[in-house]
Amino acid sequence: MHEWAIWRAGEKVLLQRIFLTAGAYNQRGFGTSAELGARIEHAWTFSHDIALTYGFGVLSHAYDGSREFSELAYATLTVPF
Predict the structure, then answer these.
(1) Strand ranges inside 10-49, DSSP E
(2) Has this prediction a pTM greater than 0.85?
(3) Which of 17, 19, 25, 54 could cross-link 75 (Cys pair, CB 3.0–4.6 Å)?
(4) C-alpha 51: how far from its chain's center?
């Protein structure tokens, strides 16, 4: 993971994060294959307790003997109750 601040003004900040994933995926009966992935994320902090994070990513590994490619998108909003 690598993170850096794109914008900052007082308590408000926008961070950008890049995640790279590399490893091994083992499935019984099919062996082990390489697992590779990448994700990019933005994290907005509006005050010390309100934040918005969103991102998207991709992941690839062999499943049942053939390469599988998956995509994901997510968003989270943190607010106090």
Answers:
(1) 12-27, 31-47
(2) no
(3) 54
(4) 16
